[in-house]
Every structure is written in C-alpha cells, then in structure tokens.
Design goal:
Number of helices: 13
Low-confidence stretches: 303-308
Distance between the termini: 26 Å
Number of strands: 8
Largest sheet: 8 strands, parallel, barrel
Order of helices and strands: HHHHEHEHEHEHEHEHEHEHH
Shape: globular
Strand content: 5-15%
Helix content: 40-55%
Structural class: alpha/beta
Length: about 300
C-alpha cells in the first residue's frame, strides 16, 4: 500500500526538499491549495459561496518550533476573520485549526495552544461563525479534546474532529454526540500504529459507518467528511432513519476533489461545506491528500510526466 509510504514521506525533510523543488509541484499543489495569502483566497471564497456552498478555512502549517511561530499562526487566522467580516460572510465560512500550529507540541504546549486559539474562537464568534479543532495524530488527542471542552464553556458551537480509523473513536463519538455539539467525522490521514488504529480499508469503512450511526442517532450536529460515494449514500440513509432534516447535518469535502459532487449535493438542498486550505507551508497537508486517495497520487505523477 502506497498510503503509509507517502505518510512517512510527509515527515521527511529530504522528501520535502525534493517535492518542493520539483518544477511541476506548484501547479499540482494549486489544485488542492489555491493560494498563499488572504488576498489570494478571497476570490475563491466569493466564488464558492456564490455557488451555494459553505466553506471551512485552514491556514496550513504544522511544523511549529517556537512560540513566535505559534503567535504568527494565531495572527494569520485573525487576519482571515477580519477579511471575512468585511465580506459579510461570517455565516457561510468557518475556520478549521490544527492545535499543532498554535504551539501544542512545545514545552507547555497545551496551555500555549489554548491561549492562542481562544482569541481566534472569540473573533469568529463575533462575526457569526465558529471554529472546528482538527484531529491530528493520536498522541495529541487528549489535549485537543480537553481544549475543545474548555472552549465550549464559553463558545458551545466550537466543533471538533474524530477519526474513524482509531479504536478509541467509537467511545469518543458516544461522549460527543450530545445536544449542541458539532462533530466532523473523517477516516483519518496520519500514519498510526496497529496498536491504536485499523489498518485495512474495509475495517476503516465499517468503523466509519458505526461511528456515523452514533452521531446521527445522537443530539449533536454531524459533519460527514468523506468523498466516498458509498459512504455519502449511507450517510443520507442514516440521516433519514434518524429523522434528521437537511439542515441538521452537513457534508464536507476537500477543495479540488470531486468538485461536481459539491455542487450536486448543494443543489439537492444539502449543506455542503468545502474544506479550503491556503498558506505557504503546504507540504504536510499536500502529502496527506496524496496518501488518502490513489487517484490524487496518479494525478500528481501524470502531471510530472506530462511536464517533464
């Protein structure tokens, strides 16, 4: 399986240098990450929202080694929120944040990440939107969930992400499927050991359905993060069985992947949110997109051959 190999490469400094130096890389990266700064991304936001889509914005970058870098990540999100306020798009655009960007892995990282993410959550609430805490590798999750619980005391709309491939996730879903919660379910895109995560696709898919059923039958707001047509159909059936209206759950897909499906679901009346990343430190995000789906890797390799 190529996925684990690519995920390992996402942490390799040597592979980072090789991939980022390849002339073809930027044109392929642009498919998934359509800009480096706020000015680049505003036209994308305006276009997608005009098409009836909603967005969640991710300022990419995870390799934070100093508190100053964490403060800069916080400020990048605050600048985005300022621009959304001017566009009057707060209700259609939320933020996704990785706590690693806010200093979670540094000494005293839990407190630092909480202190950095809180003003972002406050600013988002002030313009009528919210923040979802992305899940990262399993060693970070207890900290992420604790920060999520703390933020929800003042900002109950704060969301979080759970990953179907982790053994712990079914219990996490039961705990989180409460009134007022917002939970995005994804398969998982980090290289995890067999001691904590399912390794085979069919096992992960079965776990995804089990967890999704728990969320749909709960009292919270499920966010279905998947491009898999079969899982999307199952999600619709589970929502119907649970008696959910179209505004009581939503689908989320990545920018640049199955874009026609985004529009189809929106045209059917579903809430369809496009996960849109931007920024200069795109390498880790890009490599995980390649690992998630063989078609993404084939697209990259074809582009390298055709422009080589």
């Amino acid at each position: 399986m190529l996925g684990p190999v690519i995920l390992a490469a996402s942490r390799s400094d040597r592979m980072r240098r090789l991939v980022t130096a390849a002339p073809v890389t930027k044109q392929v990266v642009d498919r998934f990450i359509p800009g480096e700064g706020v000015d680049d991304i505003v036209p994308i936001i305006e276009d997608l929202t005009a098409r009836g889509l909603q967005l969640t914005m991710d300022v990419v970058g995870e390799d934070i080694t100093t508190p100053e870098q964490a403060y800069a990540a916080r400020d990048a999100y605050l600048a985005l929120i300022d621009r959304l306020a001017l566009l009057n798009l707060g209700e259609k655009v939320e933020m996704s944040v990785k706590l690693s960007m806010f200093g979670q892995a540094l000494d005293g990282g839990h407190e630092l990440a909480l202190a950095n993410v809180r003003p972002v959550v406050e600013a988002a609430a002030a313009i009528g939107t919210t923040v979802t805490l992305d899940a990262e590798d399993h060693t970070t999750l207890d900290s992420m969930f604790a920060i999520h619980e703390e933020l929800r005391k003042d900002f109950p709309q704060t969301g979080c992400v759970i990953q179907a491939y982790l053994f712990r996730t079914e219990a996490d879903a039961r705990r989180l499927a409460a009134a007022g919660s917002r939970v995005r379910l994804v398969k998982g895109a980090y290289k995890e050991p067999a001691e904590v995560a399912y390794q085979q696709k069919h096992e992960i898919d079965k776990a995804y359905v089990r967890v999704l059923r728990t969320l749909m039958e709960g009292e919270g707001y499920p966010m279905i993060g998947s491009h898999d047509p079969r899982l999307i159909a199952i999600a619709q059936e589970l929502a119907h069985r649970a008696g959910r209206k179209l505004d009581e759950y939503e689908f989320q897909m990545l920018y640049g992947i199955r874009s026609e499906e985004h529009l189809r679901l929106a045209a059917e009346g579903h809430r369809m949110r496009v996960y849109t990343a931007y920024g200069t430190d795109w390498y880790g995000y890009f490599m995980r997109r390649l690992a998630e789906k063989p078609a993404n890797l084939r697209f990259f390799l074809r582009s390298m051959v055709s422009t080589g």
